[in-house]
Amino acid sequence: MPDEYTRADAIQVRLTGAAAHNGAQAVPDDSLGKHQSSTCAEFLGVVRTNAIANVTIKRVHGANGTGAGTLTATGNDELKWTPPGGTQGAGVTIANGETKLLEGGNGEYEKCIVVSRTAADNLTGTETTTLASVFNNTYGFDNITSAEAAAGDLEYRCVSLYNASPSTVKDLIAFLGTLGSQRISNDAQLGAAGAGTVGTATDDLSDWPATGWCRIETAAGVLREIVYYSSRTATTCTVPAAGRERLGTTAAAGAADDKIYPVPGVLIAKEEPDAQPDGAYTDKTVAGEGSKPAGLTWRSAISATGDV
Questions:
Q1: SS3 assignment, position 240
Q2: Are the C-beta atoms of residues 308 and 268 closer than 8 Å to each other?
Q3: What's the pLDDT score for residue 282?
Q4: To the nearest whole percent, how much of the chain has pLDDT over 70?
Q5: What is the β-pairing status of strands 236-239 and 231-232?
Q6: Burial 255-268 (b: 16+ CB within 10 A, else e)
């Protein structure tokens, strides 16, 4: 039976900022480097309706996505997990005091949760387990003031990848997720400089954020520019002059076959320090969230074949 710290639960994203390796530190805004924390970074929030008695949810993996999942007791000592919009996974036997990994079905093993059983009473019932995005977590950062927004506030966080399994991990790749459907800017493109619009004549942008960041790539998939759009309609994003050349890119005129993506306003970098708490983030718990670590390469890849 799948145990915690195996399969998709083997690699954990943990906070940093602890005083000692795997020490106590559970505040996302204090995840600024130094030692790895014993607390995993939170991906999704959980609301349980008609919760199965004597079962606690210890971790929810981000690959589940948001929406309503189902946790079902299919036997006195057996549980099954159905991720939001997914297929019910295999039954897992769990005894009192045990912690187990429950996976989605149809090969979606990464859509999993970790649960613990707290009593020997028979497991019964079906609960709705609603997963939702979490604000002010490690990935959402903290709230900013109007003055910070106007000044273009830049903040940094540091998380640690922890291999909880005895196996060696190879070829680990990190990249950013998109926030909506990829489109083609075949209606409007930006000029070489200044304000403008990016738009599509054949598709709509209804699943894009109302305001946010747009990644523009050539038809061949080469990054052209990342811009900030201040508003959008169903087909067009409006980009102010100050929204050009964002996240380290340079302004460039667009083309009618450019690919456009809604993306988070985030760059990521990696480092492999020889020991803790060495590395570029060692002193950021003192310097603060606005202090940029030196010597790192910041990237914006949105796929496993990208640049991170």
A1: coil
A2: yes
A3: 60
A4: 96
A5: antiparallel
A6: eeebbbbbbbeebb
